[in-house]
Structure to design on (154 residues):
């Protein structure tokens, strides 16, 4: 019982296909883990129960103004983002990282893309004291420093 003249080649191709499949699956797992935006501590706030409004603007210099913010734990905050720049920006709560660069964010911790001259809000409640980062992940913006920090106090 032999494989014929091409048997070894077919057996080798089958082994290579299994290896390639394994590599692709591992690559997808790593990509999914790295590309998911870090969860922001806390939860979506109720727009009808806002305790404080924090106004933030975006600039053509790829900055948030202000870039440092202080809020109280347990309060529902409306982060009101005004895009004063000539290009698109977004506001995303959570750990700043490079892997989210250029990705679209559309959950409760993000405004999603904000067109020039437009406004958008994120309603959020932080349950405990700590520091929370925020960033713009429109391609190139995070890497050029379009980030900020929220200090949550008791």
């Amino acid at each position: 019982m032999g494989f014929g003249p091409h048997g070894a080649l077919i057996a080798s191709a089958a082994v290579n296909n299994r290896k390639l499949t394994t590599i692709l699956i591992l690559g997808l797992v790593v990509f999914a883990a790295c590309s998911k935006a870090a969860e922001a501590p806390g939860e979506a706030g109720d727009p009808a129960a806002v305790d404080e409004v924090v106004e933030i603007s975006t600039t053509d210099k790829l900055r948030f103004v202000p870039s440092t913010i202080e809020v109280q734990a347990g309060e529902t905050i409306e982060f009101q983002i005004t895009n004063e720049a000539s290009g698109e920006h977004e506001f995303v709560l959570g750990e700043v990282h490079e892997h989210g660069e250029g990705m679209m964010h559309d959950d409760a911790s993000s405004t999603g893309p904000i067109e020039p001259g437009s406004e958008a809000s994120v309603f959020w409640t932080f349950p405990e004291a700590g520091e929370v980062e925020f960033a713009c992940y429109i391609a190139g913006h995070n890497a050029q420093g379009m980030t900020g920090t929220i200090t949550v106090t008791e």
In short: The chain has two domains: 1-35, 43-153. Helices lie at 7-35. Residues 27-37 have pLDDT under 50 and may be disordered.
